[in-house]
Write a structure and sequence with these properties.
Jelly Rolls, 12 strands, alpha+beta, about 240 residues, 4-stranded antiparallel β-sheet, Arc Repressor Mutant, subunit A
Length: about 240
């Protein structure tokens, strides 16, 4: 006979483990996380599924427990520009109290993703009760704003190879892993996805990769981006 109680208990423990790894909840104990009301919205979304659109109303803080999510906007012609690709263990959403804004933006899962959510009242209550969570949120948003500013500056001032080099450098800083010879970005990105992140079409990204490979700034192996000489990449990002 299947022990459903044991299965449910194991599932609940896994949920708490995933939530404990979310950046803004790091200061909380398991018991404190368990007391938060997560049942307002818990869902799994499939790859390619868009679960937030500009017309959606209400202030919600989404918690990405597991998976990857792309936040993007569209211009009047329908061309997409990716603002950020978020990995497991972070938050995003439309909430004025946290300066989090998805206005005029879409949220799309890039792979099967588990998402929970908190309404404004719950976020306010949590910050008042646990100021350390508020501090974590301030640090997170400051880092994210700095990244946005760098990317907007790149779009205005740099050519495509330098924009791509700058983006790769940001990805290494945020998710890169050390290898025996340098760094590797552990997520596979298509040229189309990278193009939406630097304001270029797929063909321009392909040409930019060729330029960066020739300069010794990057290598692509089995669709993973590798960087052995980080200083060469930095020079390419500065458009030296």
């Amino acid at each position: 006979m299947v022990d459903t109680e044991k299965i449910e208990r194991g599932s609940a423990e896994e949920d708490i483990r995933l939530l404990s790894m979310v950046d803004i909840f790091e200061p909380l104990s398991w018991e404190e996380i368990e007391k938060i009301n997560w049942k307002r919205l818990e869902t799994r979304v499939g790859p390619g599924e868009t679960f937030f659109m500009p017309m959606d109303l209400g202030e919600t803080l989404f918690i990405l427990k597991k998976g990857r999510v792309r936040i993007f906007r569209k211009n009047p012609e329908g061309r997409e520009f990716t603002l950020v690709v978020l990995e497991s263990g972070t938050v995003f959403g439309e909430m004025s109290i946290t300066a989090q804004r998805l206005r005029n933006a879409y949220a799309q899962a890039l792979e099967p993703s588990d998402i929970a959510a908190m309404c404004r009242a719950d976020v306010e209550r949590l910050i008042l009760e646990k100021p350390r969570v508020g501090l974590q949120l301030v640090h997170l948003l400051s880092d994210r704003l700095n990244t946005y500013e760098i990317r907007m500056e790149d779009l205005a001032l740099k050519d495509v190879p330098a924009r791509l080099a700058s983006l790769i450098h940001l990805l290494i800083e945020s998710q890169g892993v050390r290898t025996s010879t340098g760094y590797k970005i552990p997520t596979r990105y298509t040229h189309q996805q990278l193009g939406t992140m630097i304001g270029a079409n797929r063909e321009a990204v392909t040409r930019a990769f060729a330029t960066l490979r020739e300069a010794g700034a990057v290598e692509v192996r089995r669709r993973y981006i590798h960087v052995e000489d980080i200083e060469t990449l930095r020079r390419a990002a500065r458009d030296d």
